[in-house]
Design goal:
The structure is a single chain. This protein is α+β, with helices and mostly antiparallel strands. 25% of the residues lie in helices and 37% in strands. It has 4 helices and 7 strands.
Length: 153
């Protein structure tokens, strides 16, 4: 059995007890390496966002969040995978699972701010760069977006 097969994915709401594990992962992967504190993890719209978690052996090992801006579009943000599982396919699995749910919910466009070194990952998933690079959290980013096709059937 591969590591990928032992990992389960689950959507949850912001008031779920697992929020602490998700926030710790977001801190360790996305903020701590940049010198930010734990207070830099929460976004003002976390409560209204859809959270998808990856679990392995009772630990949160991956997450991706989606904030709806309208009924048809919104922002993917705070994608994080434990360093030991990066490049294992878990990130792709998180994004595609989220996209499947969004398609079912009627969402047709997803945008995100990709760190420059992650733009290739999102590009391979069909996201296109929009506009010029910009700085966010002290590092270069690209605005990227993808149109989701309606589910068949």
């Amino acid at each position: 059995m591969t590591t990928h097969q032992r990992i389960t994915l689950r959507f949850f709401t912001h008031d779920d007890a697992e929020i602490a594990g998700e926030r710790e992962l977001r801190f360790r992967v996305l903020r701590e390496p940049l010198g930010y504190g734990r207070d830099a993890v929460a976004f003002p719209f976390d409560d209204e966002s859809l959270h998808l978690l990856a679990h392995e052996a009772g630990r949160v090992v991956g997450c991706v969040l989606y904030h709806p801006e309208t009924a048809l579009q919104g922002r993917l943000y705070q994608m994080a995978v434990s360093p030991a599982l990066q490049r294992s396919g878990l990130g792709r699995r998180l994004v595609t699972t989220l996209e499947d749910r969004l398609r079912t919910d009627g969402v047709r466009r997803v945008h995100l701010h990709a760190r420059a070194h992650a733009a290739g990952f999102y590009g391979r998933l069909g996201y296109q760069i929009e506009g010029e690079p910009f700085d966010e959290v002290g590092m270069p980013h690209h605005a990227m977006a993808k149109t989701l096709q309606a589910p068949i059937g």
